[in-house]
Amino acid sequence: MKKLLSFAAAAALALSLVSCGSTGGAAKAPKAGYPHPMTYTLDIASATKDGVIVMQDNSQYGTPGQTTRQTSYTQKTSWYSIVKPNKPQKGDTVHLVGRLTSEIDIDNLYISLVDNASSWTVLNEGENIVSDIKAGVPFDIDLELNIVNKVGGECMLVLGYGEQNGGVANFTAEKVAECDIGTPQGEIEVVENHTTPKVYEFDLSKDLAYITLAPEYPWVDGVQDTMADPLLYSATVAITQKFDKDTDWPIAGDKIKVYWKTRSNNDISALSARIIENTPAVNWWKEIDVNAGTGHVIAENIKANEVSELEFEFEITDAPIEGLSIYMYNSLDASNGSSLLTYVRD
Questions:
Q1: Which residue, 40, 145, 217, 250, could crosslink 224 as a Cys pair with Cβ 3.0–4.6 Å?
Q2: Is 36 exposed, middle or buried (0-12, 13-18, 19+ CB in 10 A)?
Q3: pLDDT given for residue 19 in this prediction
Q4: Per-residue confidence (pLDDT) for residue 297, from 0 to 100
Q5: Three-state SS sequence of the chain
Q6: How many CA atoms within 13 Å lie on the side-chain side of 113?
Q7: How far is the C-alpha of 293 from the C-alpha of 279, rounded, in Å?
């Protein structure tokens, strides 16, 4: 999780004319668009699971005395599914409301809205603090937040307090209002994401100039040991841009068929691949295809400096949350070390 600059958290999301409690079903997105700027009302309890805000020790990224205890980024407090059709934009206003109860006394609680898909960008203007919080005593949140950064990914509520208040302590949240994104002008045409599995096809050769299968070293105490022998050679290629998050996002059962015309500077006896999600939403690694844990060979007997025309397919087992990548790799004995694979265009 990236460091929050001067304050730590509160998040934004909402679905047109629907209460915050609605999270099921296929997400809908507007074709016609909503009139901005507009005002959102966001209730904190509606973004929680069972009314609990889970905190964590985030000393590595927090500001000492202010935000070393922050809202968990694995058990997020988020209105993503509600705001997805019409995410807050720069110039909008978010009326953030809620009633919270802390397990411990807190001198200052910092509150902000954060976009976790863009280096934990703080979305709202200014510093928002609630002071002198007493353990077990409910306190109200009632803030008008000016949005200064457009939401590109997921909006989350982030709370933060300093280590001087003690250890990690959760909050309970009581619902006080319905979420609202204002009243759009005119009728909004919506389109649903697909619910029947489909096949996506794309040509990887048209995206990037090259990839490098580089040494992947073992991790020791959270750090890669580059003095050790590599485990294999690998590369991670993001393909999130191939999909429309609002109207055509992969679901379980979908297949992704990939074409790739490439040239390697080394012989590679076997090149394997997996589909993964490599985002903060899954703590940076989750395999989401039917070959999870093993991957599958996408090419064999690649010869140095010869053009290889590859075709391979993945089947999705879990819908990605924020992004998709192809993780390619070969074993130590499958090539002559690091390989540069250039994309060959017709």
A1: 217
A2: middle
A3: 29
A4: 93
A5: CCCCCCCCCCCCCCCCCCCCCCCCCCCEEECCCCCCCCEEEEECHHHCECCEECEEECCCCCCCCCCCEEECCCCCCECHHHHCCCCCCCCCEEEEEEEEEECCCEEEEEEEEEECCCCCEECECCCEEEEEECCCCCEEEEEEEEECCCCCCCEEEEEEECHHHCCCCCEEEECCCCCECCCCCCCCCEEECCCCCCEEEEEHHHCCCEEEEEEECCEECCEECCCCCCCEEEEEEECHHHCECCCECCCCCCEEEEEEEEEECCCEEEEEEEEEECCHHHCCCEECECCCCCCEEEEEEECCCCEEEEEEEEEECCCCCCCCEEEEEECCCCECCCEEEEECCC
A6: 37
A7: 18
Nearest Cα residue to 269 out of 236, 296, 310, 303: 303
Q: Which residue has the tokens 């090149």?
A: 271
According to the model, what pLDDT value does residue 190 have? Answer: 55
Distance CA 176, CA 139 (A): 12
CA atoms within 13 A on the CB side of 83: 28
For residue 265, what pLDDT is reported?
93
Q: Which residues of 239-259 are buried (b: 16+ CB within 10 A; e: fewer)?
A: bbebbebbbebbbeebbbebe
pLDDT of residue 99: 97
Q: Are 332 and 232 in contact (CB under 8 A)?
A: yes
**pLDDT < 50 regions, the chain:** 1-32, 185-186
Instruction: Supply the pLDDT for residue 207.
Output: 65
| pTM (two decimals) | 0.52
